[in-house]
Write a structure and sequence with these properties.
Helices cover about 45% and strands about 15% of the residues. With about 300 residues, the protein is α/β, with parallel strands linked by helices. It has a single domain, classed as Alpha-Beta Barrel (TIM Barrel). The longest helix has 15 residues. It is an enzyme of class 1 (oxidoreductase). Its EC number is 1.-.-.-. Pfam families: Bac_luciferase.
Length: about 300
């Protein structure tokens, strides 16, 4: 435990990376993780949508690096049993103490019901029940090893509250620094907040906006994010497919590389413990290294 009472996460830096590598071969993706570590970033958070299983990927990235923290951003609770999530997390924490973060989320109704053939109902109750079942797993599994730090994909106030009572904090995604501040106000000082910040720099303003709108295209059709943006002060006119220019500029850091870096550190100033930056390229799984090299020069990674 840290002095504040939070479970320990051995972040080498307060700024990390969020990257979707599902279409990459794992050996090539491990090379990316090694360079992310060498550049001074403190973490690599990976998603779980319809491609690779994220605990297996996490093990591969942890084994390929020495200090990098690896987190799931977010492991879909509809994909695995609570006991599998708990025991898998414990095993990774046993092998790589304080370097694995288990981020969990309820996903989205269209993905769960149409993409997976599952049932999406009462997300708050579903998550609470899932976490209770995880907590009930016997201590004979990896005896003497604490469970990894557990974060929830929490956007609404009730899920944020649950991330404080039943987990170790929140992993906000596609939020403004003001929402990071709101999350901190709800959770208080003794819970982790790892905020994600997308950035687009290089090229013209039009180029950057195009990348931002492309990034927001799928999310703008999902009720969870639409409701989140309305709570953050945007309105229905911003919720067009791909988002309005106002929404794009509000949740994606654009401009110069220094402007992009400032959008990342704004979350730290607002109360985040750690921020993971997602660089937007021509497609969601583009090689992030060229942009990360440039961005590293403008960020306080030491």
């Amino acid at each position: 435990m840290t002095d504040s009472g939070k479970p320990e996460i051995a972040f080498p830096s307060r700024i990390g990376v969020w990257w979707a590598s599902e279409t990459w071969s794992i050996t090539d993706a491990q090379d990316v993780a090694r360079e992310i570590e060498a550049l001074g970033y403190g973490s690599l958070f990976i998603p779980e949508v319809t491609g690779k299983e994220c605990l297996t990927q996490s093990a591969a990235f942890l084994s390929a690096t020495d200090r990098l923290v690896v987190g799931t951003g977010i492991a879909n609770i509809h994909i695995r049993l609570p006991s599998a999530a708990e025991t898998g997390g414990r095993t990774l924490n046993a092998q790589y103490p304080h370097r694995f973060v288990l981020g969990l989320g309820v996903s989205h109704a269209p993905l769960v019901e149409h993409g997976m053939g599952g049932t999406y109902a009462k997300p708050l109750a579903t998550m609470r029940a899932y976490l209770d079942k995880m907590a009930a797993v016997s201590e004979v599994i990896e005896p003497g090893v604490p469970r990894p730090t557990r974060l929830l994909a929490a956007l609404g106030p009730k899920m944020i509250e649950l991330s404080g009572t039943h987990a170790d904090g929140a992993h906000p995604y596609l939020v403004t620094p003001a929402q990071t501040q709101t999350t901190r106000d709800i959770l208080g000082p003794d819970k982790w907040i790892v905020s994600e910040q997308a950035v687009a720099f290089g090229g013209t303003d039009e180029d950057q906006l195009q990348r931002a709108h492309q990034h927001l295209d799928v999310y703008s059709g999902l009720p969870n994010y639409r409701n989140s943006w309305l709570r953050q002060g945007f309105d229905e006119s911003d919720l067009v497919r791909g988002g309005s220019d106002r929404l794009a500029r509000g949740v994606v850091g654009m401009g110069s590389v220094e402007d992009a870096a400032a959008s990342v550190t704004a979350h730290l100033d607002a109360g985040a413990d750690h921020v993971v930056v997602q660089v937007l390229g021509d497609n969601p799984m583009a090689d992030p290294r060229p942009a990360l090299r440039e961005l590293a020069k403008a960020l306080p990674l030491g």
